Amino acid sequence: MSISRKQKGKRRQELLGTIYSVAIYTILYIPVFVMMMFSFNNQRYNYYWNGFTTQWYAKLFNNSAVIGSLWYSVVIAVLATVISVTIGTIGALGLKKYEFRGKKFINNMLYIPIIVPEIVMAVALLIIFIKIGLSLGMGTILIGHCTFCIPYAVVTIKGRISGDGYSLEEASMDLGANRIKTFLNVTLPSIMPGVMSAAFLSFTLSIDDVVMSNMLAGAKNSTLPVLILSMNKTGVTPDVNALTTIMILFIVIAMILNNFIRNALKKRAKMEENI
Amino acid sequence: MKKLISMLLISVLIMGLFTGCGSSTDSAKGGNAEPSTELNIYMWQQYISDDLIVEFEKDNNAKVNLSYMSDNADAITKLTAGGGQEYDLIMTCDAYMESLVEGGYVEKINFENIPNAKNINESYWTAKEYCVPYLMNYIYIVYNKDTSPVEIKSYNDLINPALKGQIASIDGARNLFPIALVALGYDPNSINENEIAEAYEWLVKYNDNVVAYGNAEQNLTNGTASVAFTYDGNASWAMSELGDKNNLVIADFEKDPVQLGFDLYVVPKGARHVDLAEKFLNYITDPEVMAANLVEYPYSCPNDAAVEAASDDYKNDPARDFAYKENVFFQKDVGNVITIYNDYYQKLKVGE
Amino acid sequence: MQKNTFKRKTLPSLAMAGPVSLWMILFVTLPMLYIIYISFMSRGVFGDVVYKFSLESYETLLDSTYFKVILKSIKAAFVTTVLCILIGYPFAYYIAKKPKEVASKLIMLIMIPFWTNSLMRLNSWLLLFQTSGPVNNFLLSTGFIDTPMSFVYTDGLVMVGMITNMLPFAVLPMYSSIEKLSRSLLEASADLGASGRTTFFNITLPLTFPGIFSSIILVFIPSLGIYTVTDMLGGGKVLYIGNIIKNQFGSIRNWPLGAALSVLLIVITGLLIYIYTRFAKIEDMEVL
Q: Where is the signal peptide (chain B) (predicted)?
C-alpha cells in the first residue's frame, strides 16, 4: 500500500520535473527560434515581421564576408579550446599535485580574468601587444581568448581531480609505466568529464566573444560577433540570421549522427561480445 | 605520444601565425617605386557599396581589406594606439579632428594626388589638410504625426510631460548636451560649468521621456516610440521601410539649429600604403562613383557634384527634405571641460 | 641525490604548472600591473594617458555617483544570482538524476543556444515583445488587451535576459556536484524513514553546497560587470559599473579613471568573496 503510494509520488515528482525542465529549455530556445524565424523575414534589416522570403539564404551564398567571418570565428574557437584545455589540464594537475613557491599567487591570478570586465583586460593586452610590436590578427585574438578560457578550464578540471587518483598513478608507475604513459592511460581518463566540460565552456566563451576580438583584431579579418556588433549602427541584416539557422541545423544533425554512430558501435561491440 | 606531436604542431602553427602576419605586412610596404597592392580600411559597416570596392580592386589590381568599427571610440583607440601599423585609412568624425591633429596621430594628405577633392563643399570641411569628408549626418527630430501627442517645433517640446516614454534617442554626452544647451539658449559647445549643470537639469526631464537610447529606426517603425532624436540616414531607412504608410515627419524647427557631423577619412601616422590610400580617396570623391554609392547608402553627402549627379530618388528623399538645413552647429573640441560633461552625463544615467 | 630530486620533483612540477603559470604572468599579471600603473597617471586632453603621477582618478571615485552605481550593480547582480540559483537548482537536480548518457545530452542542449550570437539572442526578445511584435499581436487578436502592452525596455525583460544569459553558469557546477552524490546515501536516508524533504534538507542540500557556492561565484561575478543586457533590453537608460568602465575606455576616454574603477571592482569582488568564504566556512577556493 505504502509502496505504491511512494511510487505514485515518485512518478508525480518525475512528471513535475519534466514539465519544469521543458519550460526552462523552452525559455532558453525561444530567442534561437525567433532568430531562425527572422531569417525568412522580407526586410532589409530585422525591425519587425514583414512577410516570408528565402532571399537571405541565396544572398548568403553570394556573400562570402559573413561566411568567412563565421569560419574565422570557428577556427579561433577550436584553436583556443585546444590550447586552453591542454594548458588547463596539465596546469590543473600541476597546481593540485605540486607545492611550489608562488602557487598561491598563480591561483589568485586565475580569478582575475573571471572578475575583471573583459574590456579592461582587452585594452591592457592591446597596449602591451603594440608596445612589443606584435602584429594584430588571429594570433593576438587567440592569446586574448585563451587568457579568459584557461582560468575557466583550470577551475573546472581541478574540481574533478580526486585525491585517490594519486595512488593509482603511483601504482601505474610502480608497474613500470613512464610518466607520459601514466598520464595518458590513468590520469587523463579519470578527469575526462572535467576536461570535456572545460572544452565546452572554452568553446562557448570563445565563439561568442566580442570584446577581446574587437580590440585585438587586425585589419584583415573579423570574427562573426565583431561583424554583428559593427552592424549596430543600422541593424542586423537577416542573412546573419540565415547563417545562424544553418549553423544550428548543422550542430543538430551532427549530434544526431554522433548518437547514431555511437549506438551502432555499441551494438556491434555487444554482438562481438556475444560471439 | 600523439598528444605530444599534436602539441608541437599547434605551437608551430601559432608561431606561423605571428611570423606570417608580420612578414606579409612588411613586404607590402609601399614605396614610391612600386605601387601598393593592399589597402586596409577601418570604417562603419553598411556604409560603402561592395560593388564599388570590387571595381576599385579591379582598376588598381589591389586587395582592399575592410574592417568595421562599432563605436566612434573604436577608431580613436586604433588611431592613438598606433593604427598606422595596421590601417591605411581610418574613418572618424569632425569633432575629433582638432585633437587628432594636435596629438600627431594623423598624416598630412597630399591633395595633388586627389584632384576630385575639389568636389567637396569647403564649408563642410574642418582640418582640411588632414582629412577627406565622406558622408554626413544631421541629427534631428522626426516624429509620427499620427501617434505623437505633441507637434514638435523646438527642442523644448521634447521635455513636454505628454511625451513620457515616447522618445527613441541617440546616446552620448556630446550628442545629448548640445540640444539641452541650445534649448536653454546657450552655446551648444559651452565650456561654462553652470550652463552645463543647467543643461543637466533639462536632460533629466528629457530622460524621463526617453523610452530607449539607440535602435531609433526599429522603435519608430514598430510603434514603440513616436518621436526620435536621430540621424537623417536612419530616418531615411525608417521612412523607406514604411513606404506608402510613411507617417513620419521631420520636426518643423523654427529657430533651433540642428547638429551636423561628418564621417571622414584620415591617414593614420605611419600608414604603409599611402599611395593606394590616395588613389582610393580620389576614387571615392569622384562624382559618378559617389553618386552610385548614394543609391545604396542614401546618406547626406558633402560632395556637391555627387549630389548633383545622384538619382532622383536620392534627391527627393523625404528624410532630407527640411527647410533649416543651413541652420546647423558643429561639435567642437571642448578640451578638459569634457570631464565635466562626462560627470553630468553619468549622473544623468545613474539617477537617484 | 640532488639531481634525482630535480628529476623527480622539480622537472615535473615545472613541466605541468609551468605553462599555466607563465601564461598567467605574461598575459594577466603584466596587463594588470599596467592597469594599476595607469590608474595612478593623469588623463591627457585627448583621453590619452599622460605619464605623470596623480591621485585624481581615485579622488574622482569618492563622488557619490560611483558609490550609487556600485550599490546598484551589486543589487542587480545579487537578484540575478538568487534567481539563477533558485531556478537552476531543481533543473540541475532533474538532469543529474537522469542516466549519464541522457544527462550529457541534456547538458549539451543547454549549451547550444550559447553558440549563437548573444547580441542577436537579446534582440530576439525585443523582436518578440515589441509593440507590433508577435506577442502583442496575439494578445490583441484574442481580445485580451485593447492597446499594445509595453513589454520592451522594462526591468522585467532585463531580468529575463540576465537569467537566460547566466543560467548555464549556474546549472553546470550544481549539476556536477549533485551528480557526484552517491545514490546509496540517499536511499539509506529514505530506508531509515526520512521523508523526501528531510533527506533533501539534511543530506542533499548540505552535500551539494560546494556546487552551489561555485554557481554563485560564476553567476555573481560576471553579472557584476555585464552591460550588454541592460543596454539592449533596458534601452540604455541605466548605467551599471560595467557600462561606466566600458565608457571610460571607450566613448569617454578617461583610461586612468577606467583603470581606477577596475581596480576598485577587483577589490570589492575580492572582498565580497573573502567575506562570503568566511561566512560559508569554505577553507579553499578550489571547490570551484
A: 1-28
Q: Quote the minimal CA–CA distance from A221 to chain B in Å.
A: 7
Instruction: Judge contact between A42 and A50, C-beta under 8 A.
Output: yes
d(CA B185, CA B236): 29
Q: What predicted TM-score, i.e. pTM, was given to this entire model?
A: 0.84
Q: For cell 594626388, what's the residue?
A: B113
B74, B335, B349 ranked by CB distance to C239: nearest: B349
Cβ within 8 Å, pair C235-B214: yes
Amino acid identity, residue A160?
Answer: R
Q: What does each C-alpha distance from A57 to A229, A239, B51, B343 come to in angstroms?
A: 21, 7, 20, 47
Domain B137-260+320-350: which CATH number of 3.40.190.10, 3.40.50.800, 3.30.450.40, 3.40.50.2000: 3.40.190.10
Nearest to C17 among A95, A208, A232 (CB): A95
Contacts of B115 (CB under 8 A, 6+ apart): B282
Cell representation of residue C164:
537566460
The count of C-alpha atoms lying within 13 angstroms of the C-alpha of A96, restricted to the half-sphere facing its C-beta, is 23
> Is A184 in the C-facing interface, judged by CB distances under 8 Å?
no
Which residue ranges form the domains of chain C, and what is each CATH number? Answer: 68-247 (1.10.3720.10)
CA B223 to the chain's CA centroid? 26
| C113, A31 contact by CB (below 8 A) | yes
**Is residue B30 very low, low, confident or very high in pLDDT (cuts 50, 70, 90)?**
very low
**What is the ipTM, given to two decimal places?**
0.83
Q: Does B161 touch chain A (CB under 8 A)?
A: no
Q: CATH number of the domain at B7-135+262-311, please?
A: 3.40.190.10
Q: Does B335 touch chain C (CB under 8 A)?
A: yes
Whether the CB-CB separation of C11 and A94 falls below 8 Å is answered with: no
Q: Amino acid letter at B244?
A: D
Is C16 close to A241, i.e. CB distance below 8 A? no
Q: What pLDDT shows up at residue A6? A: 67
Minimum distance, in Å, between the CA of residue C39 and any CA atom of chain A: 12
Please name the helix (run of DSSP H) or strand (run of DSSP E) that holds residue B93, with its range, or none.
Answer: strand B89-93
Asked if the domains at B7-135+262-311 and B137-260+320-350 fall in one CATH topology, the answer is: yes
Chains near A (3 or more Cβ pairs under 8 Å): B, C
Q: What is the pLDDT of residue A82?
A: 94
pLDDT in tens, C207-255: 788 778 878 888 888 888 788 888 888 888 878 888 888 888 777 778 8
Any C CB within 8 A of A83 CB? no
Residue B91 phi/psi, 5-degree rounding, is -90, 135
CA distance C118 to B298: 30
Would you list the domain boundaries of chain B? 7-135+262-311, 137-260+320-350
pLDDT in tens, B177-214: 999 999 999 999 999 999 999 999 999 999 999 999 98
**Residue given cell 521635455 in the structure block:** B159
For residues B13 and A138, the answer to whether their CB atoms sit within 8 Å is no
Q: How far apart are CA C69 and CA B352, in angstroms?
A: 10
Cα separation, C214 vs C217, in Å, equals 5
Q: How confident is the model at residue B15 (pLDDT cuts 50, 70, 90)?
A: very low
